[in-house]
Specification:
180 residues; mainly alpha; Four Helix Bundle (Hemerythrin (Met), subunit A); single chain
Length: 180
């Protein structure tokens, strides 16, 4: 039994969906906890402003607007990577999902520069939001998203790809960096 089959038994699709729902519930609860001070302190928003924003001199205006450049770059990278997967790689929408065994190894488009352009695009857009909003909470969430991408999705996907494509994928890993 290969690593992919072991992972499929250990982490069935329903379990991955359940993990996503748990993360959504936890995020909702944390959001409610963060908003609760508004009701207990006579609607004083200063507590939330102090919690959510960096001190104004860290990223002052108009420099925070430089983050606006990263957001469309991230989205363009996501669209380009999806185009490469769906059109150039001839993958179906089902095979494009994370942790699915693909039929083709896509080496075109942004995959010539990054093994994970979808995740990179998402992180670039989030970093752009952190800069524009100057938000501590968004910065922590971006770090959390990076950790989840790296330690959950990318780790599992690399096992699947190495098992499925063997030496071709190992050569690809040697030539192309993970992020850029």
């Amino acid at each position: 039994m290969g690593k992919f089959e072991e992972m499929k038994e250990k982490y069935p699709r329903g379990m991955i969906v359940a993990q996503g729902l748990v993360m959504l519930i936890v995020a909702t609860i944390l959001s409610l906890i963060l908003v609760a001070p508004l009701y207990f302190f006579d609607g004083s928003i200063e507590i939330l402003v102090d919690l959510f924003l960096f001190p104004p001199d860290i990223i002052p205006q108009p420099y925070n607007l430089s983050g606006v450049l990263l957001i469309p770059v991230g989205f363009i990278l996501i669209v380009w990577a999806n185009y490469a997967l769906l059109v150039t790689g001839k993958l179906s929408l089902r095979n494009r999902e994370p942790m699915q065994k693909p039929e083709y190894l896509v080496l075109a488009g942004p995959y010539r520069f990054s093994r994970n352009p979808l995740y990179l695009g998402c992180l670039l857009a989030l970093v752009g939001l952190v800069i524009v909003w100057s938000s501590i909470v968004t910065a922590f969430l971006t770090i959390l998203v990076y950790i989840i991408f790296r330690n959950v999705f990318i780790k599992r996907e690399e096992i699947i790809l190495e098992e499925e494509f063997g030496d071709d994928y190992r050569d690809f890993k040697k030539r192309v960096r993970r992020w850029f």
